[in-house]
Design a protein that fits this description.
The chain is α+β, with helices and mostly antiparallel strands. It folds into two domains: 30 residues; 75 residues, Beta-lactamase Inhibitory Protein, Chain:B, domain 1, CATH 3.30.1450. Helix content is 33%, strand content 39%. The chain has a four-stranded antiparallel beta sheet, with helices on one face. A hairpin with a 5-residue loop joins strand 3 and strand 4.
């Protein structure tokens, strides 16, 4: 019986690891892609920040969205930001995802 729970726990942990790796792999797909192709697929970025290396960070809102209740009513907003790092030649070389309020600068 104990082996059953050990094997079941191991399978759940392994499934979770593959699930989280799948999310990262889907964004890793954009590494090496032209900036114009990223924008044509994702749309216009929320913001564009310069980098010290002469490139840009394209900032996008990222789900999940949350609804806050305040005295004026409901307000829906994104909870995370994603930044795609683009070099001088217009090629995406990295990405990062952060909760709101954190910096996208490396």
């Amino acid at each position: 019986m104990r082996n059953f729970f050990t094997i079941r726990f191991f399978c759940i942990c392994l499934s979770a690891a593959f699930l989280f790796q799948g999310c990262a792999l889907s964004l890793n797909h954009w590494k090496g892609v032209k900036k114009s192709e990223l924008i044509s697929t994702w749309g216009a970025p929320k913001n564009i920040l310069p980098t010290r290396k002469g490139g840009n960070i394209l900032v996008y809102d990222r789900s999940p969205w949350e609804t806050d209740m305040n005295y004026l009513g409901n307000r829906t907003s994104p909870t995370r930001l994603i930044g795609f790092y683009v070099n001088k030649m217009g090629i995406v070389y990295d990405w990062k995802e952060f909760p709101l309020g954190k910096t996208l600068y490396k």
